[in-house]
Amino acid sequence: MSKESSPREATTASTYIDLGADTEEGYCISSRSRQLARRTIGDDGPEDRIRQRCSIAVGDFAMGDLMRFRNGPVEAGLEALREGRPIFTDIRMVQIGIQKKGHHSRVECALDHVSDEHLKNGSTRTSAGMLTLGNDIDGSIVVIGNAPSSLLTLCTLFDRGVRPALVVGCPVGFVNAAESKEALRRLDLPSVSNEGTRGGTPVAVAALNEIITMFVETGP
User: Fold this and answer.
1) pTM value?
2) Could you report the average pLDDT of every consecutive run of 10 residues in the chain (220 residues)?
3) Distance (Å, whole) CA 149 – CA 49
4) Does a structural domain hold residue 59?
5) 38: closest CA among 77, 10, 7?
6) Residue 137 maps to which CATH number?
C-alpha cells in the first residue's frame, strides 16, 4: 500500500501511514508491528510514536525505555522540514535509510564533505566531514547513527556557535557512544537520543522517519 492509499491523518489505532511500505503485504506487516508496539509502549503522543518505531527497528521493545527527548525535538524537526532545511548524516547507511518521500529537504552525508585539512589531525572521516560542513550545519537536521566521534565533533561545533535545528544522535558502540549522547543531552538543542551503548543506524533512521511521517500527516 503506497502513501497515496494511506490516510493523511494522525497515526492511531484506526489509521496508519508507512511511507516506505509499497506493497499490501509490506503495509500489513508494518501495521501489525505498530499495533504490538502501541500496546507494549503506549501511545500518548509524538514521543511515544518515536519510541514505538525505534523499538520496531531493532526488534526489542526495551529500546523504547532508552529513548530520550530534549527541548521539543518533534516540533523543531517539523519546522525544519516545513522550511526545507537540509538533513546531514554521519554515514551513507543513514543517508540511504532516511525517507525521501513527503518532504523537500535534501539528504547529504558528511563523508561527502571531507577536506584533507580536517583529516590531518588524525580525526575520523565522519568527524572531519562534520568539521568541513561547519556553519552549513546551522539550522539543519543532523542524524548520527554510527559514529560517536562525529557526535562529539558536533558538540564542539555547538561550542563555536553552530546551531542545528534538530540532532538525532544515536551512535552505537562501546567507545564514546554513551558519552557522546550524554554530551548531546547537556546542550541547549532539540535532540533525540538514547541512553547507553545501544543505538545504531536503524534507531537513528527510525526516529527521523517517524518525524517525517508526522510531517506528511499535516498535509501540504
Assistant:
1) 0.87
2) 35 58 65 87 95 96 97 98 98 97 97 84 87 96 97 97 98 97 98 97 98 88
3) 28
4) no
5) 10
6) 3.40.50.10230
